[in-house]
User: What shape does this take?
Amino acid sequence: MSRFSKAAALAGLLCLGTVAAVAAESFPGVGRPATPAEVKAWDIDVGPDFAGLPKGSGSVDRGQTVWESKCESCHGTFAESNSVFTPLVGGTTAEDMKTGHTANLRRTDFPQRTTFMKVATVSTLYDYIRRAMPWNAPKTLSDDDVYAVLAYLLNLAEIVPSDFTLSDANIAEVQAMMPNRNGMTTAHALWPGPGFGTEANKPDTGNTPCMSNCKPKAEQVSILPDYAWNAHGNLAGQNRAVGPVRGMKTGPDEAEAEAGSPALALAEKSGCLACHALNAKLVGPSYREVAARYAGKDSATALVGKLKDGSEGVWGDIPMPAQTELADGDARVLVDWILAGAPEK
Amino acid sequence: MSEGLPRPPAPAMDAGASNGRLRRAPENFLTAEQIALVGKGRRDFLRSTFLAAAAGVAGAAALGRPAAAAEGDDAILKPQPWATSLGQPVAANPYGVPSKYERALARRQSPGLTQVAAASVSFAPLQGMFGIITPSGLHFERHHQGWYDIDPAKHRFMVNGARPEFVKTPKVYTLDDIMRLPPVSRMHFIECGANTGMEWGNVAVPTVQYSHGMLSCSEFTGVPLRTLLEDCGADLKAAKYVLAEGGDGSAMTRTIPIELVLSGEVMVAYGQNGEMLRPENGYPLRLVVPGVQGVSWVKWLRRVEVGDKPYATKDEAVHYIDLMPDGQHRQYTSIQECKSVITSPSGGQMLLDKGYFNVSGLAWSGRGKISRVDVSFDGGVNWVEATLQTPILSKCLTRFNVPWNWDGRPAVLQSRAMDETGFVQPSYGQLRAVRGTRSIYHNNAIQSWKVADSGEISNVQIL
Assistant: This one.
């Protein structure tokens, strides 16, 4: 047992003593029993043993349909896109499905680590898609559509065939084929409990507090590259103007650099740019596309309404959610700016 | 360049060069065309421009200075508006804001780190902060699916069991309920597991804000999670883990060992630095898991489930896993091991002068209290012990200071912390020997700041 574990165990005992006294207290009138319906509504976690997995199924075909309307805009047609998030699929092989280790993770020259290269547990994917996807409308997929989207992803990852239907009955068989299912280890000292038997694991580095002549010389192995000096803007403007030091001037002052459009700043602050870009389709259409569509029409008032109340079907299947928190005046500023072609300055 | 910095300009000396005072870079010494070149990565001409501009200023100062100096300082001799007119009334700012002269110290993003700002990071400006408490408005941010300002009257917290036998009475609490319970207030650091993650392979960022700024420290107020679990009749002997879940779109989930909950340290918090949590930090309710990486401090906390198996959630099965050289990932890595960094002077800053400086920084450990911090001025060959500033608290930032007389020659500043378990912060060489360079998480290596003879300070790595 390490010194730390002993200390922690001792601290645990002491706390047990004090908290036991507290536990004798009760708190009448505080909290109430949860109803079964309430627990069911929120208890949506699915564990590696598939505890909590709802009954249901979804085919690769159905998954492709859902994917194209709700997932493709961020993740790409084949879940390979690197433009918004890191790629989900790629880098695994049929051999990996046999060994349960993604071989490319051993290579230092492999450019990308996709979700399927890393994830060991298929339950993780079901759980996460259900609770957090689509990114701009989490928890809106039916349980069956979560199965379908996962089936489509498993097919893209070449784990299941294109006529596959994933269900609660066969998901364990899929687990047995996951390419990196044996790729995790808990043999480390960074878990703050004994759950994985890690109390036996000592920290993996063992520096000593040497005070003098600790090494022949300071071996410098890396310096800040020249191009990185100003990659974070003008450092002079990121330091206080009084005190023992000043920031180095590495670019123009912030006031000069950031004289952008106030409407653009409002769009950023209001979260619009999570789904819209000025000049490229993201989740929603680009602002320049919107400006082109409504050019020459008197549409500003109607668009303010769409912005506030939400809209559906104009630009495809992904609905624009209602922006209820946006003040009327701000909505008008945004619409006028979009219709003017969303200028940056 | 082997010595690590682009060739420094000749120090621009005052008219009275004998005092050795360096002059900082004059403002606006670049033309628009030159700025564009800098933007494209060209910096080679920048030094000569700086030199010319600095020389010009030094010349002007030599002409202008003596007359004023004879009588004294205008800041004293001339009446100032604030001393000769009426100031502003009380409550001019109903919620006070920092001085307009402090705008430089703000949360900032690292350009190019992420594609969308709703799933990103903003870094705290450690380079300008004092003591150990992070002002709530400067607390670093990490959001997975954007942040919300949740109406506290509509927020609920639920405790349930993975199986019925784990929790006798699953319960729902409102904020009214939780704020009626006996509170505790404790100061703890929170550090993202990916802090310093951009530096695993090589130096990548210029300042401590970007290298270490996913670090903050607050006084949190709330109710020990253990109290709430006991109130629900949780079977704390059968339980081995709890799952914490957020109420936002990402519904973030993380597994936490029951032993940490039983210790009483894990807290369901609503307070931060004497007021309610800020929305960006989880208003109205977040989990506080001292010593453990920030991702486990689930914000907008809506539910805790008691169970007996770990959950392998997305943020412990796809992200927040540590890639080792053999291709295996370490899973459920959670503790933030002992680490420290010098915040002043630090990368991207310039010393104004030769002579006395207070070298100051922060040290912390997820395993307990800091017991000692040593500082080196020669890249780790020789060390001196720093003074630890009180309070020195468990799983909390500790401020250290050490005096330094800078002689104007190049130096490499490092700090090395030790915690009460005897663990000593590793060097880059030691860390990479076991973990390689491809991990993203848990980089707690000794940080090096190189001071050039110009007084300019840059980020370097020493084995």
Remarks:
- Residues 1-21, 23-31, 38-67 of chain B have pLDDT under 50 and may be disordered.
- Chain B has three domains: 17-79, 120-330, 339-460.
- The radius of gyration of chain B is 25 Å.
- The first strand of chain B starts at residue 120 and ends at 122.
